[in-house]
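Pasting as-is:
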Amino acid sequence: MKFKKGIIQPGMIIHCKTEEQAKALLKYLDSLGYKWLSGEFLTRTTRYYPDDGRTYYRVETGHVITSVSDDVLPVFGKNITELSDLVESESRFKVGDKVAVRSDLSTGLYNGNYLFNEEMGKFKGKALTITEVITEISYRIKEDNGRWIWTDEMLVPVIMPLNNLPIDSPMSAVNVLGWLKAHLADGIMVALFGTEFIDHIFEDFTAEEIIDKITDYEIAHKPKREKIEYGFRIEVYDSNGNLWRGDYYYRNAKAKVESLARKAAMECAIQTGKPATWRVLDSCRVISEPIQGIVKKYNGGDVEGECPRCHSFLDGAPKFCTECGQALVWKKPGDDQMLD
């Protein structure tokens, strides 16, 4: 949150609607040398009242700050300054912007430090209007009467230049005019539409043609998202406590994984001639979309490799990286034949 220079003045009463706003304000005032009336640093406590939206901060002379509730506010007058008036706008959305809820959000999960609940999920597929910018990443909307706090991670912009576009269109998450301006300098707009003038594009192409061209380009250049799943990790240790083997398994019953761990521990004991121990870890993240491992050394059945994701050294040709859980496939050097 970036505050306007020289904006803080003695006698000012600043309203913070959330404790998040209060923390940002006090951190800024602390950097200017302000303290609580008691002499305590502002960053030690917010002195924020439990009821959301009832806390005000009064700037006293001598670089002192006091916390005021709305119960005693009439004593100080009615000249209230909202925190949003003190900061430079850096938010993704502005008041009045049309937005939509991301279609891939799941309820019950936090997005940008705020919970996306079932009631909020009912707004999927609807055009929403920003009525208040709380912080650079959080907002309130008209359609729920300002009840919930929405974040950048929950919302996408709705097309304004082509506002007849259905909300569930693939391009509803892209402001067409903004997209064209962003790609004017890099030549992509010219390559797609054959002109460097945006006005000519809207004259020569229909809205559907423009959207189809941009959609095709975005799909072709969309970064591939990692497919994250959760499973088990078995770890086998030799008699000296050194990790002898670490493997990931997912879509397997825990009993089967434990059986595999016991078998691996027996192999360790046979090879080392000493007792071995094992354990199974639950809820371990694996990246189940496989990528090709880097073979560093291949000598018949002996393989030494590297995970291209985290660059960890791997002994053998494991199906998952023992460090980051990335699924791996292996090919013989100079050959397309897969290694088992």
